[in-house]
Write a structure and sequence with these properties.
- The chain is α/β, with parallel strands linked by helices.
- It has helices at residues 37-40, 43-58, 98-105, 114-125, 186-189, 191-202, 210-216, 223-231, 235-259, 275-288, 291-296, 308-316, and strands spanning 4-10, 14-20, 26-33, 65-72, 75-77, 82-84, 95-96, 109-113, 134-139, 143-149, 152-153, 263-267, 298-301.
- The protein is built from 12 helices and 13 strands.
- Strands 3-2-1-4-8 form a 5-stranded mixed β-sheet. The protein has a 5-stranded mixed β-sheet with strand order 11-10-9-12-13, with helices on both faces. Strands 5-6-7 form a 3-stranded antiparallel β-sheet.
- Strand 5 and strand 6 (82-84) form a beta hairpin.
- Helix 6 packs across helix 9 (235-259).
- The protein starts with a strand and ends in a 6-residue tail after the last helix.
């Protein structure tokens, strides 16, 4: 029997697991709740317990696996297999992750940042079609991503490579970002950023719009509401989507002008707007990209959805040096 891969996608709400073939096909998957109480000290023991339970249930042993890969929030030390500053997990201090899991399960372990891992998944068996040059942008609560160049995930000297959400798109008058800068892509293209942009643009819009009226009335409006209204013909909502698309087109063109990847893949919750968003981003990408880049780099939608994390994490196991 061919050896398998284990992928773990660690998030602030759930931990997702997958058992995959060495070719990236998901055979089994499950999830458990992330217990962040007491400084997150239950998280790693719960992961170990769940893995042991499932492997016993499926009649599998350590010998059946090439390795385990994990994607985690926070600052990941790939060499020491530790995580620091994953605040949504209540991990402020450095956490021993890999050494504990390897000791308990006897399976080699690798770890990387969760956005990088999702990029690996989309590149391997998703929209990236296993091309060696792919940029992944994920639009969720924040804006993250990963850069794969010449088959290698770009980490940089401090592990901060691929911080796509912090490309400056509005340098003078942009919104303040959690990173301390102003005008980062994350402030206008994340789920919360889209709503913030709507509130700002509503101040000057004078036409009729259900979205503007909701914003002015202090009602709760989501990015999904805005995209749905735009698709249904609300002109104010459409102007917001157009501005978000311009920011994304500018940012992805600038990345591509440096790297000329085969594709820029857009994923995450906001990307659920689908072709309505992708085509708009592409139109601005074409405007801002270098001629050869606009002819050769494609703007695509992610294909793996919530499975990108476990698939990309599993692919890390293929890189473990025995």
């Amino acid at each position: 029997m061919s050896k398998k891969l284990l992928g773990i996608d660690l998030g602030g709400t759930t931990v997702k697991f997958g058992i995959l073939t060495a070719e990236g096909n998901v055979q089994e998957k499950w999830a458990i709740e992330t217990n962040t109480l007491e400084d997150g000290r239950h998280i790693v023991p719960n992961i170990i317990e769940s893995l042991k339970h499932r492997l016993a249930m499926y009649g599998l042993t350590a010998d059946d696996f090439i390795g385990i890969g994990m994607g985690s929030p926070g600052a990941v030390d790939r060499k020491n297999k530790t995580v620091t500053g994953a605040f949504n997990l209540n991990w402020a201090d450095t956490q021993e992750v890999g050494s504990v899991i390897e000791k308990e399960l006897g399976i080699p372990f690798a770890i990387d940042n969760d956005a990088n891992v999702a990029a690996l998944g989309e590149r391997w068996v998703g929209a990236g079609a296993n091309n060696p040059d792919v940029v992944f942008v994920t639009l969720g609560t924040g804006v993250g991503g990963g850069v794969i160049a010449d088959g290698n995930l770009i980490h940089g000297v401090a592990g901060a490579g691929g911080e796509i959400g912090h490309i400056i798109v509005e340098p003078e008058t942009g919104f303040e970002c959690t990173c301390g800068n102003n005008g980062c892509l994350e402030t206008v293209a994340s789920a919360t950023g889209v709503v913030r942009l709507a509130r700002h643009m509503a101040e000057e819009y004078e036409g009729d719009s259900a979205i503007k009226a909701a914003v002015d009335n202090g009602e709760q409006v989501t990015s999904k509401d805005i995209f749905m209204a735009a698709a249904e013909g609300d002109k104010f909502a459409d102007s917001i989507v157009d501005k978000v698309s311009e920011y994304l087109g500018l940012a992805t063109a600038n990345i591509s002008n440096i790297l000329n990847p085969d594709s820029v893949v857009i994923g995450g919750g906001v990307s659920a707007a689908g072709e309505f968003l992708r085509s708009r981003v592409e139109s601005y990408f074409v405007r801002y990209a270098f001629p050869q880049v606009r002819r050769t780099t494609k703007v695509k939608l992610a294909e793996l959805g919530n499975d990108a994390g476990i698939i990309g994490a599993a692919s890390l196991a293929l890189t473990i040096q025995k």
